[in-house]
Amino acid sequence: xxxxxxxxxxxxxxxxxxxxxxxxxxxxxxxxxxxxxxxxxxxxxxxxxxxxxxxxxxxxxxxxxxxxxxxxxxxxxxxxxxxxxxxxxxxxxxxxxxxxxxxxxxxxxxxxxxxxxxxxxxxxxxxxxxxxxxxxxxxxxxxxxxxxxxxxxxxxxxxxxxxxxxxxxxxxxxxxxxxxxxxxxxxxxxxxxxxxxxxxxxxxxxxxxxxxxxxxxxxxxxxxxxxxxxxxxxxxxxxxxxxxxxxxxxxxxxxxxxxxxxxxxxxxxxxxxxxxxxxxxxxxxxxxxxxxxxxxxxxxxxxxxxxxxxxxxxxxxxxxxxxxxxxxxxxxxxxxxxxxxxxxxxxxxxxxxxxxxxxxxxxxxxxxxxxxxxxxxxxxxxxxxxxxxxxxxxxxxxxxxxxxxxx
Length: 407
Fold this sequence. Notes:
Elements: E1 4-7, E2 10-12, E3 15-17, E4 22-23, E5 27-28, E6 33-35, E7 38-41, E8 46-49, H1 57-66, E9 74-76, H2 82-85, H3 88-94, E10 99-102, H4 104-113, E11 121-123, E12 129-131, E13 136-141, E14 151-155, E15 160-162, H5 181-196, H6 200-206, E16 217-218, H7 229-240, E17 245-252, H8 258-272, E18 276-281, H9 287-293, E19 297-307, E20 310-311, H10 313-325, E21 331-338, H11 344-350, E22 359-360, E23 364-367, H12 372-392, H13 402-406
Parallel strand pairs: 8-9, 9-10, 10-11, 15-16, 17-18, 17-19, 19-21, 21-22, 21-23
Antiparallel strand pairs: 1-2, 2-7, 3-6, 4-5, 7-8, 12-13, 13-14, 14-15, 19-20
Helix pairs in contact: 5-7, 5-9, 8-12
């Protein structure tokens, strides 16, 4: 367990969690994840930026041993969540002379979450710097990424940004700095969708702080580092913007194939009108795929069979997640099949209070298998969707169709 050099005077001392398959007891991890921590050594002082999940303290400790550090002057906590802060008590115990640096709001949260000595914690203001001797650490407050106390740490002499969760990705890899930019961008998009999208307006407000920074390397707290910081920043600006794509996310469950026939009919009608379609079968809900599909979809359609007069539980689960994620969708549709009665439309709309400004399409609910009347209503829904998309959607330069994004 040796430290690895990220760039001159900066070493990675984090941990790779190859086998983790669920994050926050909610988010599936196909590729595991990592908890990145960095030692920055100036001529006079040394700092550790972030720590690791508590269970990986032995790994962090061994990597610190490999650097033969007899002291740490500073430990920086960019973010108080325990996958980054959880080893702080052990670090401070090992290095009794170290001062813990965090944002003012971070101090209270760290003391709430962890057994830390309050007299060893120093609050740093936005834009404050500490001098390590030839190298500096500059702190950039970036609240609501994705907690209110978050900050970023800049090493200006190395043009290095250590942004904790911002620009992160759940991707366990032996590459410290990845050259696979398409794969990184796809992983970062999923991470943004699951973690950052609900706080899109708040994050937008801070993005201008990145404009004056001259960056060559971005090393977030999850996933590999990247030598194309402009690519990540531009992608985030697009995801955070109000721009939507000319595609529809259809999230559905079918029990006796009737709802699936309606999904197929609507999808075909949309495709004939030049609208992209992404179908998400919720028989086994995939939180990551659903969240990613909602990042820039102009329209979302929930398609549900009826269970005891109401929405299928798996569809309602997806509706609940969409309400939490607060995507920038402009339009919402409900379609589905029932036997003796259904209140699916009312129930789905009532479960989406966070999507206040979304245009509601006329629901299409069929008794049993869709007949000619229901199919005609689906065709009219597709016509309405396509007409609204023509007004709302302008493809972004270099944008990728939904099918390619999913691949």
